């Protein structure tokens, strides 16, 4: 029987009640980690916790606003005190942002919304967990971005700039934290094909894009429409693929990886 990837690891997942965060939490728990899921919606956190508990996994939930620096620090301190340290942290928090509006009609507020939200959350959570990581026990911080970081298309100014900012943050933070035995890796999935079934965020985000592409629904756009056809694999990544990749990257088997971006765009981008 093969060893569990994350046996005896302590993992904090911000946005743990969301589609990607919940999928990551379930896989981490399956692979032996004790998962601490944090978010703002009790029902979503409880649903993930029930799934993990039903399979014998170890899970704790907490209501935390990632934009509240003191609350995030207090939660990280409590996790470290309870578990003896933090080995893995995943920032899977999402913020609403515009897609499809060009510069002439885009307000400054809409442009800055994802930039401020995503980067502020990434800074706050990374700073809170990093002080409880590393040393004799390797630490890992995983971040999430999107292909918009490198695409040259119109209508995604705020989205693309925020994605590029998250990737730059990950690379630079990796350089800072490496001497302390902490790795930092970004994960760049495309639109996740089965995320709409897990919540309305993806549906709301891509409904304007779907209409512009002539798709009858966001699901049609994701399953076999223009977004899927624009990839080398002619399909989009699944929640399972993103979560399984996150588990590998967080494990000691990926111990030589840091300061890089894992491209899960199905070939929408070729690095």
Automatic annotation (TrEMBL):
<keyword id="KW-0560">Oxidoreductase</keyword>
<dbReference type="Pfam" id="PF13561">
    <property type="entry name" value="adh_short_C2"/>
</dbReference>
<protein>
    <submittedName>
        <fullName>SDR family oxidoreductase</fullName>
    </submittedName>
</protein>
<dbReference type="InterPro" id="IPR002347">
    <property type="entry name" value="SDR_fam"/>
</dbReference>
<dbReference type="GO" id="GO:0016491">
    <property type="term" value="F:oxidoreductase activity"/>
</dbReference>
<dbReference type="InterPro" id="IPR036291">
    <property type="entry name" value="NAD(P)-bd_dom_sf"/>
</dbReference>
<comment type="similarity">
    <text>Belongs to the short-chain dehydrogenases/reductases (SDR) family.</text>
</comment>
